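> forwarded from #structure-qc
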């Protein structure tokens, strides 16, 4: 049985391990170098400060995946838009864990009066593309050869989910 809960600081070592494996072995993250614990702690602290959720999936007492969303762009008018991120441990993929981690993200976005969730997905990652489609995300852009990793050019697909919130947006 998989439990989804809010992440705590004590989950950061496993979150870091999962994220670094993704960096080193996949094109899900367009980065080359593993992150440090200090980087992951700063990421977590920024999420908490900005009231952005971080969820973990736990199986048999062990964190096996995480999800979050954060700012899409830094300018104030983007305050109703976030970019999501979901990562699952390599030995746990294909078990529906990402689906379980997506549900609370969308719920939290609605609760926080957000209007759009954006996902930047490597165009060859059909599993992630299908996951997002299942939750109502639609493709809004396809950028050709914008990344380079593992000796090849990578295309990036942007998907978006529009929410029915906020009822009355506030400027400023």
């Amino acid at each position: 049985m998989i439990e989804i809960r809010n992440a705590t600081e004590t989950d950061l070592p496993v979150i870091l391990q999962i994220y670094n494996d993704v960096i080193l072995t996949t094109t899900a993250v367009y980065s080359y170098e593993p992150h440090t614990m200090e980087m992951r702690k700063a990421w977590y602290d920024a999420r908490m400060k900005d009231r952005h959720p971080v969820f973990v999936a736990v199986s048999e007492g062990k964190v096996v995946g995480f999800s979050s969303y954060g700012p899409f762009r830094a300018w104030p008018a983007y305050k109703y838009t976030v970019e999501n991120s979901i990562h699952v441990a390599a030995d746990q993929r294909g078990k529906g864990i990402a689906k379980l981690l997506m549900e609370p993200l969308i719920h939290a976005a609605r609760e926080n009066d957000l209007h759009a969730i954006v996902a930047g997905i490597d165009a060859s990652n059909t599993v992630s593309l299908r996951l997002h489609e299942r939750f109502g995300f639609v493709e809004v852009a396809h950028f050709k050869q914008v990344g380079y990793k593992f000796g090849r050019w990578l295309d990036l697909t942007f998907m978006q989910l529009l929410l029915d919130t906020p009822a009355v947006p506030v400027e400023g």
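QC bot note: The CA atoms of residues 6 and 55 lie 4 Å apart. The mean pLDDT is 97.
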